[in-house]
Amino acid sequence: MVGKVLDSAIANAENNHDLSADDLWVVRAYVDGGPTYKRFTPRAIGASHSIRKRTSHITVCVDEKKES
Known about the structure:
By secondary structure, the protein is an alpha+beta fold. It is built from one helix and two strands, in the order H-E-E. 24% of the residues lie in helices and 53% in strands. The two termini are 33 Å apart.
C-alpha cells in the first residue's frame, strides 16, 4: 500500500509540477486515522454486537533534492 502511495506521489510531482523523478526524495511520510465504519452482527437471544472497521489515511510528501 505504501509503495502505491509513493508511486502516486512521484507521478503527481512529475505531471503537475514538472519535477524529475530522479531528483525527488521523501520529505515526510505518516499515517493518520480515518473514519470508522460501524457495523452490527447478530448475537444470541436477539442481541447484536458492534463491529468497528477502522480505516486510515497514508500521506507521503516528496520534494526536490537541494544542492549544497
